[in-house]
Design goal:
With 394 residues, the protein is of the alpha+beta class. Helix content is 49%, strand content 22%. It is built from eleven helices and 15 strands. The longest helix is centred in the middle third of the chain and has 31 residues.
């Protein structure tokens, strides 16, 4: 990072990071021009303008970010220039800063006094001089950590002495590791453990989030959800997340005739989770982000719980059907899911499909038979699963 000593200090993106952003921006711009040129040659001028312009928007933003972003420190005043905007303030206006971690990296967020917003400083300006300047500003994360520890030391319900009370923090973190381990084992048992482990594993995954919410409410100084990085409390988010997606993973071979009928049950479970989590999320400095994450996790848990509650305890005799493969397709995202498109069967008289492993997808041919078992459902939501056809091994 280079500093320009001309009465004020200026820090810009330099080195390999600037080169990377410039190359990326130029590549996007070149791609847009290339696509537009191909469409122009085909005399499709309207589409050329539309498709060609699409990559130019992120290209312009990335190039502007690489060339324009800078941090300027001039006495007690400072300015932060972003790709398209800029913000300025005086140190006397800053309450303190927090270190925020995100999927795209981490940055410092300077919180202005009297709730007047914040100013973000990205860590590509990180250097000895910037860290020394930042040391003048109160570290709000450290302040909050010390405040929680002081509350723990003064809470007589946690122990007879301050040492005993602080030792409870270590105990809570060990308990969190144990609960996360139980959730992982239960998720693996539910997904891969066979019929013997199916019911007990699903039961553990269904009940564990309720136990986690109880712990957060009964021991708010020791446990929390989506806690900041330096918060001394045990962060129970991992155990909750594993429970939610463990239920979904274990239900991957279960399909529902009317998914909408299951939404009422899953929505109710998600709402109850959100209500239980709200009090903990309110204490998080990044309340909005914490609540968004926990809503996503609660919805995942609600769907997984409703699906498991309908299928796992269902002991009704299944009805057997056979359908024909009429086509195949796949969907791609963070992972790829493979589907066989089936002919009408049983209650599904329109277009329908069933997800299958990659090996089954590869070996399946148009016209092959697929055998299915239809169940009534413990919640009266019909569900079905693909089974091996007798005498064929498929």
């Amino acid at each position: 990072m280079q500093a320009i000593e001309t009465g004020r200090r200026e820090y810009r993106i330099t080195g390999w990071l600037k080169t990377l952003y410039l190359l990326l921006g130029l590549m996007l711009m070149g791609f847009g021009i290339f696509i537009a040129n191909l469409l122009v040659q085909q005399k499709n001028y309207g589409l050329a303008v539309f498709i060609g312009a699409l990559p130019l928007v992120p290209a312009f933003f990335i190039l502007a970010m690489a060339l324009r972003s800078c941090l300027v420190i001039d006495g007690t005043r400072f300015e932060v220039h972003y790709a398209l905007t800029e913000k300025t303030a005086d140190l006397s206006e800053v309450e303190g800063y927090r270190t925020i971690s995100s999927r795209n990296g981490s940055f410092w967020r300077l919180q202005l006094k009297e709730g007047r917003g914040s100013i973000s400083i990205y860590k590509w300006f990180n250097c000895v001089e910037v860290r020394a300047w930042l040391a003048q500003i109160p570290d709000l994360d450290e302040r909050d950590r010390k405040a929680v520890l002081e509350q723990i030391e003064q809470d007589h319900e946690l122990g007879a002495t301050p040492e005993e009370r602080l030792a409870r923090v270590v105990g809570a973190k060990r308990m969190n590791i144990a609960l996360s381990t139980i959730a992982i084992v239960a998720a693996l048992g539910y997904a891969f453990g066979g019929a013997t482990l199916h019911l007990p594993s699903a039961t553990v995954l269904a009940l564990l989030p309720a136990a986690l919410i109880y712990l957060v409410h009964s021991q708010p100084l020791l446990c929390g959800f989506v806690t900041p990085k330096r918060d001394p409390r045990a962060n129970l988010t991992t155990a909750f997340l594993v429970s939610a997606f463990g239920l979904i993973l274990g239900n991957s071979g279960v399909h529902f005739v009317e998914k909408q009928s299951l939404l009422m049950y899953s929505g109710l479970a998600a709402l109850l989770c959100c209500a239980g989590i709200l009090s903990s999320a309110r204490k998080n400095p990044a309340f909005a982000m914490a609540m968004i994450l926990m809503v996503i996790f609660s919805c995942a848990y609600g769907w997984g719980l409703a699906a498991a509650a309908d299928s796992v305890p269902d002991k009704s005799p299944p009805a057997k059907y056979t359908a024909t493969v009429v086509n195949k397709h796949l969907t791609s995202g963070r992972s790829t899911t493979y589907y066989l498109d089936l002919s009408p069967w049983g209650p599904l008289q329109g277009a329908n499909d069933v997800s299958v492993p990659h090996s089954t997808y590869q070996s399946a041919a148009i016209g092959d038979s697929v055998c299915l078992q239809l169940h009534a459902g413990a919640l009266h939501v019909q569900w079905y699963q693909r089974v091996t056809c007798e005498g064929t091994g498929q």
